[in-house]
Amino acid sequence: MAARKVSASVPPPTRIRTETHLGLVRRARRMNRTLTVAFPEVYCELDFSTPLELSVATILSAQCTDVRVNQVTPALFARYRSALDYAQADRTELEEMIRSTGFYRNKANSIIGLGQALVERFDGEVPGRLADLVTLPGFGRKTANVVLGNAFGVPGITVDTHFGRLVRRWRWTDETDPVKVEHAVGALFERKEWTDLSHRVIFHGRRVCHARKPACGVCILCKDCPSSGTGPMDKLEAAALVKGPETDHLLALAGIGD
Questions:
Q1: Annotated catalytic, 258?
Q2: pTM
Q3: Class of domain 51-151
């Protein structure tokens, strides 16, 4: 039987193993600039038109894909148009509408509680301050930063599964606690970059840098990535792993055309 390839056998470049904090800042910012080339247009992949809709969609996205959430929310948003609507929602009806997103009972509790809290404490409107948002049912810092960054234009770092996984893979931080990751990565960048940085990292995690088998051979971050070689380095093998609407663009950057 052939020996299984062990990704840990690929050592990081010496310059990264001995990196100073200044070197880390420069490398992280260089990687962000490279990601801007890979993903010149980034955006929240949850469909919404108001802060309330984004709040509900983000609650639904826990342990669920954005694609699935976007299939559920058109009917949901047509049925419930205000915080009061959610506060007075029939639980059975709401649960049935969101059932396919998983954990629907807990999510229904959070959404109804959110509506009630907004009506009781914020005149039915989603507040635009982190300190207020994290007091709402269904909200943690991740959800709060999603809403602040995408509905209010307030910079925030969204530490979801992809973001945490990639920044550790890139050795921007060794932290595992999401709040500590948020602060550690935020310190490497100008505040105005935080929201789009979050989108770029998440896009890259979904399209290229997969958890089990990243497409290293076509990743334009390879020269700055201490984990380069974790996935296949053969370009054609790696190219087959790339996903998403930017695939042609990403492969062109890697020198692979039609």
A1: no
A2: 0.88
A3: mainly alpha
